[in-house]
């Protein structure tokens, strides 16, 4: 949708009335086209290799495959429990998105609208944890999981990400910027806090809630270090971890690895292409990659 | 927004004077609403920070055996050549990665901030690596930079340049990692800069044009100074991430060849999960934490001075 097409071209023509009567293509294409190709080259090469034979992938100099070998994808799917990994990643990411939406909304609403003893201290402490690198907390967190007998389980993947200080902070800022009149009206009508939040306030918070969802999803979906240290059994792995674990077995079976990589990227890539504007705005608010 | 995360002091939420019954109800409701999230954040954020500090004063094999050793872990760190080398590598990497990515993103964003044909395609091309996972990125760079049959070596030999070892060559591996991570992160910088460029007041640019500034001068003298907050944010954020480099190393070089890419977090990972030196690893984590804090503070201070001038 957002890539160049008739739609974009038409809007450009509309936005920029012909100046100086020139219809000459901009010289910027000479800069931007090579840049775009360099940025896309690794992914294009990934696609090309994923449909080559093993012999072709080991040919030097590299060349395009003589025919398209989709069977690499089938082979990749049977060589590893891909379906399982996809389900694991989806379940864990979805659980984290949902729980962040609920828990962060509740806490953010409390911090934005209620007066309660110790709220400032709690808020500052919570913000302080934002600055702590994950490497500092990962060893004790692993020990906690051991005590709870959760090592090597999906629960261990989700638990540390169920509520994030970033989420609470982000939503609190949006609650603060919202006028209070509507809530006052709801109070007059006898609605309780919980009802006001879920039926009046949250429906007005679509964009920030969606932003939080996108960011939580990207974060958990692409997470690597935590799954690496807490999961051992292949059937409990996430897509990223499972993908990385293939490398040892298939060190130079590049066609298979590339087919697997592309498949693992597909859900996020499709979502990105469909909702690019939205992803961009979310990423710009957060600093998450 | 994230700049706020780093510097914002929360405004006091309440004015304290309120009557009795109303106030107690808020106490109950407030904690009721906040406690699920706060409990989780305390359990997996706050408590581990303290626990990690305690660990760093212990010898701990991560399976139950531990003993108090005081500052021994830290003393040993200072004498550990593998650790000091890993710090040096991490700093070299950060000192290259941050400026290259920031300047590259700035120039790219300036080029992409115009309404021309195919601009949507160009932007998408630059953004796509941002949502590509580090594992997939690392795999494809392994392939492109393969010394024996990689595309890049083929290109080099086509223009009669010597082929390179890249990830296999100790003197090049870190730079190959650098190239790969710049590819992965530059689009993120572009996103931030494009958002900031759109906020530069149009009148400023028109005034510069009226004053006869060339496009080049008005870019460097008018637009870039307006972008200072975005630049500060990017420098801080990219530094924090560069100092925590791990995933890409794990998937490509595993710290090798001959330690050439053993950065701090990779060394920490080895100490904790290959040698089970839990206390020692916790000490490394704390040194890293303090280094990140110190570097962030220096960057914020330098940027403030630079902006004030």
- Cα end-to-end separation of chain B: 24 Å
Terminal residue distance of chain A: 23 Å
What fraction, in percent, of the residue positions of chain B are helical?
over 70%
**Order of secondary-structure elements of chain B:** HHEEHHHHHHHHHHHH
Helix percent band of chain A? 55-70%
Gyration radius of chain A (Cα, Å) is 24 Å
The low-confidence runs of chain B, each spanning 5 or more residues with pLDDT under 50, are 1-23
Q: What is the structural class of chain B? A: mainly alpha
Point out poorly predicted stretches of chain A.
1-18
**How confident is the prediction overall: mean pLDDT of chain A?**
83
Radius of gyration of chain B: 24 Å
Tell me what the structure shows.
The complex is a heterodimer of chains A (289) and B (309). Chain A is an all-alpha fold and 289 residues long. Chain A is built from 16 helices and no strands. Chain A has helices spanning 6-15, 29-50, 54-57, 71-79, 82-113, 119-130, 134-147, 154-158, 165-176, 181-188, 193-201, 206-221, 225-230, 239-249, 254-274, 276-286. In chain A, α4 (71-79) packs across α15 (254-274). Chain A starts with 5 loop residues before the first helix and ends with a helix. Mean pLDDT of chain A is 83; it is low at 1-18. Chain B starts with a helix and ends with a helix. Chain B has 14 helices and two strands. Chain B has helices at residues 2-7, 20-55, 72-79, 81-112, 119-131, 134-144, 151-158, 173-197, 202-210, 215-226, 228-243, 247-252, 264-273, 278-308, and strands at 58-60, 66-68. Chain B is mainly alpha-helical. In chain B, strands 1-2 form a two-stranded antiparallel sheet. The chains are: A mainly alpha (289), B mainly alpha (309). At the A-B interface, α1, α2, α5, α6 and α7 of A face α1, α2, α4, α5 and α6 of B.
């Amino acid at each position: 949708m957002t890539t160049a097409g008739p739609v974009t071209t038409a809007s450009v023509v509309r936005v920029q009335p012909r100046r100086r009567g020139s219809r000459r293509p901009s010289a910027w294409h000479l800069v931007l086209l090579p840049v775009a190709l360099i940025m896309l080259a690794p992914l294009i090469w990934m696609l090309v290799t994923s449909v080559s034979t093993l012999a072709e992938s080991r040919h030097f100099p590299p060349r395009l495959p003589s025919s398209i070998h989709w069977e690499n994808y089938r082979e990749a799917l049977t060589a590893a429990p891909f379906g399982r990994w996809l389900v694991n990643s989806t379940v864990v990411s979805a659980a984290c998105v949902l729980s962040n939406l609920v828990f962060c909304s509740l806490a953010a609403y409390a911090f934005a609208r209620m007066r309660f003893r110790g709220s400032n201290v709690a808020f500052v402490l919570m913000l302080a944890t934002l600055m702590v690198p994950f490497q500092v907390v990962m060893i004790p967190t692993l020990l906690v999981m051991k005590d709870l007998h959760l090592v090597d389980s999906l629960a261990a993947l989700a638990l540390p990400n169920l509520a994030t200080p970033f989420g609470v902070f982000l939503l609190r800022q949006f609650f603060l910027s919202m006028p209070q009149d509507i809530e006052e009206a709801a109070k007059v009508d006898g609605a309780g806090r919980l009802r006001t939040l879920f039926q009046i306030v949250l429906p007005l918070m679509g964009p920030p809630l969606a932003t939080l969802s996108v960011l939580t999803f990207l974060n958990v979906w692409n997470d690597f270090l935590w799954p690496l240290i807490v999961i051992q059994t292949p059937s409990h792995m996430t897509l990223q971890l499972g993908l990385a674990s293939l490398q040892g077995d298939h060190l130079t079976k590049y066609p298979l690895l590339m087919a697997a990589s592309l498949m693992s990227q597909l859900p996020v890539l499709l979502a990105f292409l469909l909702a690019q504007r939205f992803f961009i705005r979310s990423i710009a608010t957060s600093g998450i990659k | 927004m994230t700049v706020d995360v780093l510097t914002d002091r929360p405004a006091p939420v309440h004015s304290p004077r309120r009557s009795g019954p109303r106030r107690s109800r808020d106490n109950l409701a407030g904690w009721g609403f906040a406690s699920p999230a706060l409990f989780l954040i305390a359990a997996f954020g706050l408590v581990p920070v303290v626990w990690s500090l305690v660990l760093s004063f212990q010898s701990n094999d991560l399976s139950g055996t531990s003993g108090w050793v005081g500052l021994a872990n830290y003393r040993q760190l200072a004498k550990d050549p593998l650790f000091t080398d890993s710090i040096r590598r991490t700093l070299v990497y950060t000192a290259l990665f941050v400026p290259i990515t920031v300047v590259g993103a700035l120039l790219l964003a300036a080029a992409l901030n115009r309404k021309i044909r195919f601009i949507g395609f160009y932007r998408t091309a630059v953004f796509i690596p941002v949502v590509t996972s580090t594992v997939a990125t690392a795999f494809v760079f392994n392939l492109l930079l393969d010394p024996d049959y990689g595309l890049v070596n083929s290109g080099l030999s086509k223009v009669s340049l010597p082929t390179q070892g890249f990830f296999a060559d100790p003197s090049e591996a870190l730079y190959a990692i650098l190239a790969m991570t710049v590819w992965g992160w530059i689009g993120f910088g572009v996103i931030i800069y494009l958002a900031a460029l759109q906020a530069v007041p149009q009148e400023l640019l028109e005034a510069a044009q009226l004053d006869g500034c060339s496009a080049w001068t008005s870019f460097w003298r008018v637009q870039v100074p307006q972008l200072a907050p975005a630049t500060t944010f990017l420098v801080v954020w990219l530094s924090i991430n560069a100092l925590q480099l791990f995933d890409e190393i794990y998937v490509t070089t595993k710290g090798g060849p001959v330690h050439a890419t053993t950065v701090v977090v990779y060394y920490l990972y080895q100490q904790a999960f290959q040698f089970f030196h839990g206390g020692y690893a916790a000490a490394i984590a704390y040194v890293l934490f303090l280094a990140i804090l110190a570097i962030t503070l220096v960057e914020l201070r330098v940027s403030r001075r630079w902006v004030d001038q």
